[in-house]
């Protein structure tokens, strides 16, 4: 996963070193020599992540961060502060200003890229939610604007899996006093995962080693693997001697890490930041669901309908060009679907359509767009994906449809296949969304003509 990163430092050599490290990993890098220049660049073209020096001549990193977090259009951009100091009071001030994390100088490559990957992954999901909310407003379905600052933390739920019972009680007391949220404490991985599934928390605070001796990262993996708990934020507590496990935790999906000895004020600030982000994402999803449910959702399958899909594809295509990424569009059509309706009635056909929609949703990413255009015709849009990966995704969908029979009312089961046509939008393409869909549709026709139950790329269909 690539992204665009702004490096802000008033020392030229520091900027050059960081920019070179990031460029080697294929990130697009822009630099600023001071806080004021950084703010101008961010407002002109918001980045995916900001690496921000703390002490600069014109504006401190704290001041830059405060200004960003006060702007609803920029507040969601992750900020990592970079400093040579290890002063806890500086970390606390930065966290209160809205920073997501700190990196010490000299910068450790492993820690840098683990944090960059984690934060850009999070930013991508928030961007997609914001884009979908914008599409809903453009369609006149919602006029609600909401920011993380509106989050009522007293409604949040936190689960602590501590390194000791005493640590758990101390953390619980600090969070209840500072945030007023509901806090539960569980000593082991099994009891913690059971509690999380029974009452899904907004944030889990997990010790690297749990009070009962079990592995905290095993709990992290279970939380991120569960369909109901994977959306919860996770704050990992580590010992200074086990920093490598912090990197592993970030790769598993941990939202933030904090080292012992714990500073209660710092931990509260990190929790406040994570809870605001989680509640912000939840509210974006809720607003989107409420606004779109009747107007732009297909009532049979629960997928987006043609109206929403064509409008949102325009926004996705614009974002693809701006970020210099690839975008794939698939047209999917169930083979010989008329025969299903003729033999099993419309109730049977509807059951197949609903099950097909479910299989589609289970085999795509959260950032992908899935829609029913009408009848047995469906649209799938995959942003930020290469041609080989998109082709692999199409084959996975084709296979998952073919391999297992579909269930009809009354207990009967039938075999169904799907034909797929796929077209790609490149960063330099000026093609409109309708033309892109038409190319994918032509490729779909070729799949039908060549015998069905297959995938055709648009170039091959031309």
Throw out a few tags for this protein:
five-stranded parallel sheet; 15 helices; Rossmann fold; 462 residues; alpha/beta; 49% helix; 3 domains; globular; Alpha-Beta Plaits
Draw up the topology in text.
Elements: E1 4-8, H1 12-24, E2 28-32, H2 35-44, E3 49-53, H3 61-69, E4 79-83, H4 88-97, E5 101-104, H5 109-138, E6 157-161, H6 165-179, E7 182-185, H7 189-198, E8 203-207, H8 216-225, E9 233-238, H9 243-252, E10 256-259, H10 264-292, H11 306-323, E11 327-334, H12 337-362, E12 369-374, E13 377-383, H13 387-403, E14 406-407, E15 413-414, E16 418-425, H14 433-449, E17 455-457, H15 458-461
Parallel strand pairs: 1-2, 1-3, 3-4, 4-5, 6-7, 6-8, 8-9, 9-10, 16-17
Antiparallel strand pairs: 11-13, 11-16, 12-13, 14-15
Helix pairs in contact: 2-3, 4-10, 5-9, 5-10, 5-11, 6-10, 7-8, 8-9
Modified residues (4-aspartylphosphate): 53
GO molecular function: diguanylate cyclase activity
Pfam family, one: GGDEF
Structure description:
One of its GO terms (biological process) is negative regulation of bacterial-type flagellum-dependent cell motility. It catalyses: 2 GTP = 3',3'-c-di-GMP + 2 diphosphate. This is diguanylate cyclase. InterPro entries: CheY-like_superfamily, Diguanylate_Cyclase, GGDEF_dom, Nucleotide_cyclase, Rev_trsase/Diguanyl_cyclase, Sig_transdc_resp-reg_receiver. Helix content is 49%, strand content 18%. It has helices at residues 12-24, 35-44, 61-69, 88-97, 109-138, 165-179, 189-198, 216-225, 243-252, 264-292, 306-323, 337-362, 387-403, 433-449, 458-461; strands at 4-8, 28-32, 49-53, 79-83, 101-104, 157-161, 182-185, 203-207, 233-238, 256-259, 327-334, 369-374, 377-383, 406-407, 413-414, 418-425, 455-457. Helix 2 runs parallel beside helix 3 and helix 6 crosses helix 10 (264-292). With 462 residues, the chain is an alpha/beta fold. It has three domains: 4-138, Response regulator (Rossmann fold), CATH 3.40.50; 148-283, Rossmann fold (3-Layer(aba) Sandwich); 306-461, Alpha-Beta Plaits (2-Layer Sandwich). Helix 4 links the parallel strand 4 and strand 5 (101-104). Strands 2-1-3-4-5 form a five-stranded parallel beta sheet, sandwiched between helices.
């Amino acid at each position: 996963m690539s992204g665009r990163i702004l490096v802000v430092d008033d020392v030229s050599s520091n900027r050059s070193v960081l920019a070179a490290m990031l460029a080697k990993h294929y990130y697009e890098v822009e630099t600023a020599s001071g806080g004021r220049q950084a703010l101008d660049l961010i407002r002109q073209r918001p980045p995916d992540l900001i690496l921000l020096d703390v002490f600069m001549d014109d504006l401190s990193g704290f001041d830059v961060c405060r200004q960003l977090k006060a702007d609803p259009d920029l507040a969601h951009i992750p900020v990592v502060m970079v400093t040579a100091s290890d002063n806890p009071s500086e970390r606390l001030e930065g966290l209160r200003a809205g920073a997501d994390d700190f990196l010490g100088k000299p910068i450790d490559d492993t820690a840098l890229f683990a944090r960059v990957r984690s934060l850009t992954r999070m930013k991508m999901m928030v961007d997609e939610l914001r884009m979908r909310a914008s599409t809903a407003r453009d369609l006149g379905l919602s006029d609600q604007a909401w920011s993380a600052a509106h989050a009522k933390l007293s409604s949040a739920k936190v689960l602590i899996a501590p390194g000791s019972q005493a640590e758990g009680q101390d953390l619980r007391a600090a969070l209840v006093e500072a945030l007023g949220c509901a806090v539960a404490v569980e000593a082991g991985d099994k009891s913690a995962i059971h509690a999380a599934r029974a009452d899904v928390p907004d944030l889990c605070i997990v010790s690297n080693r749990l009070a009962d001796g079990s592995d905290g990262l095993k709990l992290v993996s279970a939380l991120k693997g569960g369909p109901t708990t994977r959306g919860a934020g996770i704050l990992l507590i580590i010992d200074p001697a086990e920093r490598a496990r912090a990197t592993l935790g970030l790769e598993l999906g941990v939202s933030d890490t904090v080292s012992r000895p714990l500073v209660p004020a710092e931990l509260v600030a990190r929790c406040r930041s994570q809870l605001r982000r989680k509640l912000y994402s939840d509210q974006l999803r809720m607003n989107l669901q409420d606004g779109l449910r009747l107007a732009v959702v297909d009532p049979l399958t629960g997928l987006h309908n043609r109206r929403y899909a064509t409008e949102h594809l325009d926004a996705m295509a614009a974002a693809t060009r701006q970020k210099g990424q690839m975008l794939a569009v698939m047209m999917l059509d169930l083979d010989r679907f008329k025969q299903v309706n003729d033999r099993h009635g419309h109730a049977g056909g509807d059951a197949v359509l609903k099950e097909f929609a479910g299989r589609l949703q289970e085999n795509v990413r959260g950032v992908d767009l899935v829609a029913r255009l009408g009848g047995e015709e469906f649209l799938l849009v995959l942003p930020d994906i290469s041609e080989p990966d998109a082709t692999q995704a199409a084959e996975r969908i084709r296979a998952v449809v073919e391999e297992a029979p579909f269930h009809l009312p009354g207990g009967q089961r039938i075999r169904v296949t799907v034909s797929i046509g796929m077209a790609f939008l490149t960063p330099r393409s000026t093609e409109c969304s309708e033309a892109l869909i038409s190319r994918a549709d032509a490729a779909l026709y070729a799949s039908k003509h060549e015998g069905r139950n297959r995938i055709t790329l648009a170039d091959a269909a031309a």
